[in-house]
Amino acid sequence: MSSQRSQPAQAPGAKSKTYPVPYFTSIPGGLQPSQVISVSGTVLPNAKRFHINLLAGSDIAFHLNPRLSEKTVVRNSKIKGSWGSEEKSLPVSMPFIPGHSFKVEIICEAQCYRVALDGQHLLAYTHRLKHLPAINALEVAGDIQLTDVQV
Ligand code: GAL
């Protein structure tokens, strides 16, 4: 696997950049309230699932996991090797669609993450791993083409 990269691979003359998937990058200094993490991409036509993870060492502070095959968006945390309880409720039917582009913004607030999809609030996830400065890496993996990441 390649090491962390902060810039996408872009062939000379390419029309649009794409990022390698799985994609890992560090969040310098860790998270703090009001910080926004932005991930843009396109769901692959036959996608089953993808995820955006916010990491603190081997813990997954926030696992945002659209499952196209189940038409759900699973949220969870993995702390000391164990997954917690899944959060699945949504105010709308499955908003991620194979073949469609998306922009996910994860707004880190003091008590929770707020997730917006294409500029619209989608869900909130109360912090389980509460020490925000320790959450210092981002992973994006699964069945998407990744076009932009901002940390
Ligand atoms: C598991 C799955 C993991 C993760 C987790 C979230 O079943 O294998 O990848 O999505 O659910 O609760």
Work out the helicity level. under 10%
Q: Tally the beta strands.
A: 11
Enumerate how many helices there are, as a single number.
0
Strand content: over 45%
Task: Give me the CATH architecture of the domain at 34-79 and 96-150, please.
Answer: Sandwich
Largest sheet: number of strands, sense, barrel closure: 6 strands, antiparallel
Shape: globular
- Order of strands in the sheet with most strands: 1-10-3-4-5-6
Cα gyration radius (Å)? 15 Å
The distinct bound ligands, ions and cofactors come out as: beta-D-galactopyranose
Mean pLDDT over all positions: 93
Residue runs with pLDDT of under 50 for 5 or more positions: 1-5
CATH names the topology of the domain at 34-79 and 96-150 as Jelly Rolls
Q: Roughly how many Å apart are the termini? A: 21 Å
What are the secondary-structure elements, in order, as H or E? Answer: EEEEEEEEEEE
CATH class of the domain at 34-79 and 96-150: Mainly Beta
Estimated structural class: mainly beta
Description:
- There is one protein chain.
- With 151 residues, the chain is mainly beta.
- The protein has a domain of 101 residues: Jelly Rolls.
- 0% of the residues lie in helices and 48% in strands.
- It is built from no helices and eleven strands.
- Strand 7 and strand 8 form a beta hairpin.
- It is globular.
- Bound molecules: beta-D-galactopyranose (GAL).
- The site of beta-D-galactopyranose (GAL) has 6 residues, from strand 4 and strand 5.
